[in-house]
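Minimal example, chain plus uracil.
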Amino acid sequence: MTEQFDAVDVIRAKRDGLALSGPQIDWVIDAYTRGLVTDYQMSALAMAIFLNGMSRVEVAHWTGAMIASGERLDFSGLSRPTADKHSTGGVGDKITLPLAPLVASFGVAVPQLSGRGLGHTGGTLDKLESIPGWRAALSNDETLAQLEDVGAVICAAGSGLAPADRKLYALRDVTATVESIPLIASSIMSKKIAEGTGALVLDVKVGSGAFMKSLPQARELARTMVDLGSDAGVHTVALLTDMSVPLGLTAGNALEVAESVEVLAGGGPADVVELTVALAVEMLAGAGRPVGEDEVRAALADGRAMDVWRRMIAAQDGDPDAKLAVAKETETVVAGADGVLTRLDAYGVGIAAWRLGAGRARKEDPVQAAAGVQLHAKPGDRVTAGQPLMTLHTDTPERFARARQALEGAWEVLPGGAAGAGDATPGKLILDRIA
Ligand code: URA
């Protein structure tokens, strides 16, 4: 069969700063999925896109071509409207765990097709797999049945959704082309649009622990994704939220499940609750079931969200009452002097949790359920000399030294620091909203 285009011409056009045509984009994505365009050619094209960008029309076309590379789910037969959330990834970001059952408790179905962690940010499936018996792999029929019955599903995204993205993302990971706004936006949105949700709320993280280190970059990513979603008929809103400090007091799989259960029991750290409630309000409004913040908070306090959590875990063979794994070894990091904790860097804590065994370096590596970092203070807190600032958890104590190295320079206690003025000050978590 003669091919419509030549990969070299497509690469050259983007290298020279030209816009790719719709047919060129359709062809290159399809030919890459078929294995006709090689990894080295796609690497060159990804780098040309990284350097020269893509117009709004090109990004929309690129996203459409990735959606067309696989199947689309159809939730139109459900009796409830659907709403989903996507976070661009951060340290201690366990929000999906309390959020999915919370939103479902108001009659909106939450299909949360998730991934595993790579690098310093944790993966939702890794967290839930620390619950004994819990199963991530569901068939499409099981997903639909659970959405109708329980209202919330957190499961592995099947390989049928946007297979071109799966291949391209793995390539970008090893060719220094991940941090490109058009490539990130089309990667995330192709999966979300193919998934078939009616409403989508994006949590775009900003700061040291996130892909986007600055607010203008994060705004541009959010704008691109919101436009892609809206153009595809998905009601899409983005919140820009701080990721310079870890979310909550835990980073690590079982540690984060335990903290999420505290939130579902009406407690938990204020920042985790604030973000969970804000995202739930947006998801419910997007699904056409607007609910006020007080009513959403009430569903955490009175056990409605917890009831859905328990049913959601049990439906996937998990035991919501099982004891979570506890690390074999712990060490503490203590404050050297009296003062105020003025800085606690999300990236450093994320790397430490990863090195303790909470994350993986290669896709096939196992993770330790109990490994991670537990925080005892957040920026703005007054501390005294010798007071534990963090507890490091692992089953393999030879990992402590490398984890401590990651934390060097990641936190600071200043004698004259202002208490309560740190990064965790309430109100500084949600930085902007883009609709
Ligand atoms: N997550 C994705 O799914 N794709 C990206 O490109 C970045 C983060």
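The chain is about 45% helix and 15% strand. The first strand starts at residue 83 and ends at 87.
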